[in-house]
Give the backbone structure.
Amino acid sequence: MSNLKEKLFEKIQGWRPRTTKLLKEHGSVKVGDVTIAQAIGGVRGVKCLTTDISYLDPMEGIRFRGYTIPETLAKLPKVPGFEMPLVEGFYYLLLTGDIPTEEDVKAVEEFNKRKIVPQYVFDVLRAMPEDTHPMTMFSAAILTLQKESEFVKAYNAGMNKMDYWDPTYEDALNLLAKLPQIAAFIYRYKYKGGDIITPDPQLDMGGNFAHMMGIDKPYDDVARMYFILHSDHESGNVSAHTGHLVASALSDVYYSISAMLDGLAGPLHGLANQEVLRWIQGVRDKMGGEIPTEEQMKKFVWDTLNSGQVIPGYGHAVLRKTDPRYQAQREFCLKHLPDDNLFKYVDILYKVVPDILVEQGKAKNPWPNVDAQSGVIQWYYGLKEYDFYTVLFGIGRALGITANIIWDRALGYPIERPKSLTTAMLEDIASKA
Ligand code: NMX
Ligand code: MLT
């Protein structure tokens, strides 16, 4: 057993009694009530999921295993000479809750052993229509790999329920190790005339991704930062919830990750990062490339709102302040690309949009989310094909969701099945209240 897997099993054994005790001794204790508005309105704010991988505080933002973003970025081991942590070490943190030592980050080897993508995946991608969206290609490629599932083999061989986490861990690492190559293949196949760059087995996940994308340093650090920042946002967001839901039927990691990507591909969720760039390009075209004044920008924002559309990259279902993932990327921009034109657009938007959303009086959170800033960095380093951006989000999100699925299985979480009511039932409940 590898160092990481042994450590994980230790943690699982220590954790199981806590879940068992909560269920057996305190299972009937209430954690909240559900209103009619919540039953109709997207289950917003209903506390009905459990995860220890990350927690989202509305005012503070995300903590990964108890660490804020600045703490996470500062504490994790890095490739010497680089600013951003190794993604592999970050995954160690998500899985075990502990900051790995340099020695522990031998988890890198785990990923390296599992990197080879079978040829049939590329054959399937090549067979898809040319104008297929990169997210469709990404999701299909992962679904194609489903026949490799170790979980399915073990389940069919009669595995004990207590062991479910083990082949799920194997599936998770096998898949995660391949995602950068699949994504880079989609990018270069679709946008670089099929000029594919083969992986470098010596490089870490972020470094190898930058290499296969054909983008120079410091894009390797950008990739590391991007995957870490997008990894997890507790359990209730569409992608994480979809991954958890599908996995709760004991569908394997390949099915679950393919499904979560389909949710991430929606414009109100991950696709918003592409929408931000599309929206800004629209403004740029109207301005003939000139940077708009704040007054001009206000008019573009109001025009969008008045035509019944949302301002992409702003608002959030849980957060009630500027997303710290936005802040982390903003700090990166201030350091590495302060004079970039597109960054200036994003900066002006930050100055004008919150006040306008407050004045409009609809959005509960007028502040920017992660997607408002992420495309600018990609664009600056030459990745201008913005319909690819959500694929990058998807690689990162797979880290968090697979960590969750492994723990769901380790703690024996059951199939998810909330209860629905009819409109007449709600009317009846309302009339008696
Ligand atoms: N621009 C315009 N209107 C907005 C915005 C926005 N950015 N955000 C919320 N609203 C509206 C929302 O459409 C709703 O209108 P209506 O009453 O007509 O249905 C109203 O404000 C109340 O919505 P909230 O309760 O504040 O937001 P909700 O929790 O329903 O949705 C988002 C959260 C993130 C879907 C929403 O803020 C949004 O559509 N934002 C723009 C898209 C975006 O940036 N999505 C990415 C989120 C992060 N991610 O990567 O997933
Ligand atoms: C996410 O990262 O999943 C988004 O910010 C959406 C959310 O948390 O609701």
